[in-house]
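Key result, reporting period 2: structure in, sequence out.
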């Protein structure tokens, strides 16, 4: 009996302990005063990364060429529009990188900005701003090093858009891709620009952290997104074939077919002249003389009307004499 009582006592004590533990508060006590976490700070570097590769040339590096430039005003950023200010946005990114200013850099980035390999598939993409790195200092240091490898006169291009498709980029429906390329085409810095909340921002920046010595192929990563946006009716970028008459159905306008001309009537054959008869020769028509403007005759001067002479007064008629009476 003692063993059964001991078991019951232990079981009841365990249940009591669980009941008391369940009544405890799940969360720690609420502090009386909330304290904001300290804001991260960054001391800009006064020097640029050493130039390497093509940046060692006489033209200097790409990052060095923007070190003395001043950034634009913040109010001006709201007036930009893609694809027209694409190069202006990238210039501002390079100025912020040369100044080692992470706050200015974040002003030019989208909310979900990423960085990775220079590929439109955004391979190895990772966010620029993270919880452990709220200023994006890791990206900023790598971007400064990569831009120091390029020459100040490196080739810059943006993906051309078809005529009339600029509105898709300006409205935010389609991105604009731009890139810097080295002379051997092995080193690339790619930028994906978008319109977010009515402002032009950078959404993705791709570059190699170390310069590559050979081209990299990643065939198993899927197809990259199209350079031109999808439309309901597929657009052929190839030149159309010429028509049978040699005209272009797109560029040249179709000319109307000429109306058939009536066949000329056969002329009556003239009888051949005999040998003895004289051959009639048509008299040559005199050549028309050039019309020479004849001097117009001067209008004759009309004589001025003379003053009418006064009419003579009518003479009084003589009185009629009475006839003599006949003698009886």
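The corresponding designed sequence is given below.
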């Amino acid at each position: 009996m003692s063993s059964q009582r001991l078991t019951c006592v232990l079981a009841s004590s365990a249940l009591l302990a669980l009941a008391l533990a369940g009544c405890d508060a799940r969360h720690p006590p609420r502090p009386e005063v909330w304290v904001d976490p300290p804001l991260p700070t960054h001391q800009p570097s006064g020097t640029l990364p050493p130039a390497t590769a093509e940046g060692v040339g006489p033209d200097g590096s790409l990052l060095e060429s923007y070190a003395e430039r001043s950034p634009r005003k913040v109010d001006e950023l709201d007036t930009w529009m893609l694809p027209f200010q694409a190069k202006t946005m990238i210039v501002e990114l390079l100025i912020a990188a040369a100044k080692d200013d992470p706050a200015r850099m974040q002003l030019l980035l989208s909310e979900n900005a990423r960085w990775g390999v220079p590929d439109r598939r955004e391979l190895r993409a990772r966010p620029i701003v993270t919880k452990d790195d709220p200023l994006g200092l890791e990206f900023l240091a790598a971007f400064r090093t990569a831009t120091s490898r390029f020459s100040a006169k490196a080739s810059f291009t943006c993906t051309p858009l078809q005529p009339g498709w600029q509105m898709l980029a300006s409205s935010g429906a389609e991105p604009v891709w731009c890139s810097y390329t080295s002379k051997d085409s092995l080193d690339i810095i790619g930028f994906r620009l978008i319109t977010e909340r009515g402002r032009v921002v950078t959404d993705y920046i791709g570059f190699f952290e170390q310069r590559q010595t050979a081209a990299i192929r990643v065939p198993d990563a899927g197809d990259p997104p199209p350079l031109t946006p999808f439309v309901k009716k597929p657009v052929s970028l190839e030149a159309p074939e010429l028509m049978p008459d040699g005209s272009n159905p797109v560029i040249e306008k179709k000319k109307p077919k000429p109306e058939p001309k009536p066949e000329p009537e056969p002329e009556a054959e003239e009888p051949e002249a005999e040998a003895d008869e004289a051959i009639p020769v048509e008299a040559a028509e005199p050549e028309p003389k050039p019309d020479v403007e004849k001097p117009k005759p001067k209008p004759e001067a009309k004589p001025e009307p003379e003053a009418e002479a006064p009419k003579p007064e009518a003479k009084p008629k003589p009185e009629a004499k009475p006839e003599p009476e006949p003698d009886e």
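The first strand starts at residue 109 and ends at 116. The chain is about 20% helix and 10% strand. This case is discussed further under Risks and Mitigation.
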